[in-house]
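Subject: for your reference before the review

Hello V.,

The reviewers asked for a structural picture of the protein, and I figured it would be easier to keep everything in one thread rather than splitting it across files. Below is the amino acid sequence we used in the manuscript, unchanged from the supplementary table.
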Amino acid sequence: MRSGRRFVGMATTLVAAIALLASCTSDGGGIAGSPTAGDAAAAKVTFAPKDGATDASVTEPATITVSGGELVEATLTNPDGKQVEGAIAADKKSWASAEDLGYGKTYKYSAKAKNADGKETTETGEFTTMTPAATPRATINPGDNATVGVGMPVSIKFPEGAPEDKAAV
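And here is what came back from the structure prediction:
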């Protein structure tokens, strides 16, 4: 009888040990503790110029980039609400403006990106372009559609005086 009880006790201990080990393994089919589907980090959207920037350059394109995913939508709108021309790159990692920006204007970004699991992230922001101290204006003679003779000189007059680098003009 003792051997029967001993056998039942050992069998019970063995079943309990197997159950304990089974509860410690991953059900994701991978290594215990490894990321499973749905655990991918959210896509990170970055704006250039940065959100809230002032005195942003009008000669550099505005860009939207994403890491850890791809862009689904990207827009930049001017103060009138009109979208600035631009395109998402073929690799869907960035967007860049394709037209000149205006001086002293506030532009608004909007971007939607998704990570490897398809989880979407939406970011918005805005920046303001620089306002120049002065904007030179030149007067050109003869004017548009004027009929002139062969010897008529073309002249450009600057109200602020002659430019320092005449060759550049």
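For the response letter, the relevant points are probably these. Residues 26-35 have pLDDT under 50 and may be disordered. Helices lie at 2-23.

Happy to draft the paragraph if you're swamped.

O.
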